[in-house]
């Protein structure tokens, strides 16, 4: 078992496959009891039985469709009421079916319900609850497309940019209250998400596609190091630091009482 501080019971959304199921395995290996959340109760139950047998942990199954707000509230209640839960892995999400201009707008709205509305509610519920207790951790799964919005479906990119910004903002408030926060930004990852969206991972350049176990192991290594933002593919962490510094250079000039002189706008006369 890892020598890192044990965080208590972990609740993992989107736990029936892919990144979520891999987090469940790795956290169980570390000795965490689990609450597994997803729509597919059969797959959750099979995974729960496997993890119980392999690692001797307690695993509860909570069936929920996080595109449905009543189900989101049920998961929220579990987060708030179960005092043993000290870690949320906010992983559930779906990807696009194609380019934005060719995608189904109803499907994109469902994506927002899952990738944004549900993630937001559960992250805030966890942050509020953990801050009140003075301990706990939140891992939000975003994506590298949050940083390169020109290169992928706009709604999906925007949903993951939301997750990134939400994580940074929660950290600013909650870190001083004992809450540890991390956003993980995967690149292309070998999971079922492509098949579900009608594509195939095999069509992609294999040099750009990371195995899901490597992704989660790297993300947890970043978590153990206390990283706020973890980009498993990024070779040099200094590049992220430089990006952050460049962004913050803008801060002093983002709000003034007059337009910048480059626009040539004369000061309005008081009426």
Structure description:
The structure is a single chain. It is built from 8 helices and 9 strands. It is α/β, with parallel strands linked by helices. Helix 2 (41-55) links the parallel strand 2 and strand 3 (59-63). Helix 1 packs parallel to helix 2, helix 1 (18-29) packs across helix 7 and helix 3 (69-81) runs parallel beside helix 4.
User: Span between N and C termini?
Assistant: 71 Å
> Spans with pLDDT under 50 lasting ≥5 residues?
1-5
What oligomeric arrangement do these chains adopt?
A: single chain
Number of helices: 8
Order of helices and strands: EHEHEHEHEHEEHEHEH
Helix fraction by DSSP (H/I, runs of at least 4): 40-55%
Whole-number tally of structural domains? 1
Q: Which second-level CATH architecture applies? A: 3-Layer(aba) Sandwich
Mean residue pLDDT:
92
Main-sheet strand order equals 3-2-1-4-5-6-9
Rg on CA atoms, Å: 20 Å
**CATH superfamily membership:** NAD(P)-binding Rossmann-like Domain
Shape: globular
- Annotation, overall tally of beta strands: 9
Strand content: 5-15%
**CATH topology grouping:** Rossmann fold
Category by helix and strand content:
alpha/beta
Largest sheet entry: 7 strands, parallel
**What would CATH call the class?**
Alpha Beta
Organism: Ensifer oleiphilus
Protein name: SDR family oxidoreductase
Pfam families: adh_short
GO molecular function: oxidoreductase activity
């Amino acid at each position: 078992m890892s020598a890192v501080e044990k965080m208590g019971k972990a609740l993992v959304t989107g736990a029936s496959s892919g990144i979520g199921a891999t987090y469940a395995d790795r956290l169980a290996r570390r000795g965490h009891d689990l609450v597994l959340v997803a729509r597919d109760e059969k797959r959750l139950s099979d995974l729960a039985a496997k993890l119980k047998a392999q690692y001797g942990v307690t695993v509860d199954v909570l069936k929920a469709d996080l595109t449905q707000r009543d189900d989101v509230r049920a998961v929220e209640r579990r987060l708030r009421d179960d005092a043993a839960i000290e870690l949320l892995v906010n992983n559930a999400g779906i990807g696009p079916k194609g380019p934005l201009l060719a995608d189904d707008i109803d499907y994109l709205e469902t994506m927002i319900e899952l990738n944004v509305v549900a993630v937001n509610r559960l992250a805030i519920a966890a942050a509020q609850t953990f801050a009140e207790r003075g301990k706990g951790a939140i891992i939000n799964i975003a994506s590298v497309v949050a940083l390169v919005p020109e290169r992928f479906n706009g709604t999906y990119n925007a949903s993951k940019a939301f997750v990134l910004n939400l994580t940074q903002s929660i950290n600013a408030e909650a870190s001083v209250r004992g809450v540890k926060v991390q956003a993980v930004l995967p690149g292309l990852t070998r999971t079922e998400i492509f098949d579900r969206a009608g594509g195939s991972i095999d069509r992609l350049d294999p040099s750009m596609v990371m195995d899901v176990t490597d992704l989660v192991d790297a993300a947890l290594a970043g978590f153990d190091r206390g990283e706020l933002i973890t980009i498993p593919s990024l070779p040099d962490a200094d590049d992220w630091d430089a990006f952050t510094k460049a962004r913050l250079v803008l801060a002093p000039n983002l709000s003034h009482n007059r337009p910048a002189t480059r626009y040539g706008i004369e000061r309005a006369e008081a009426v």
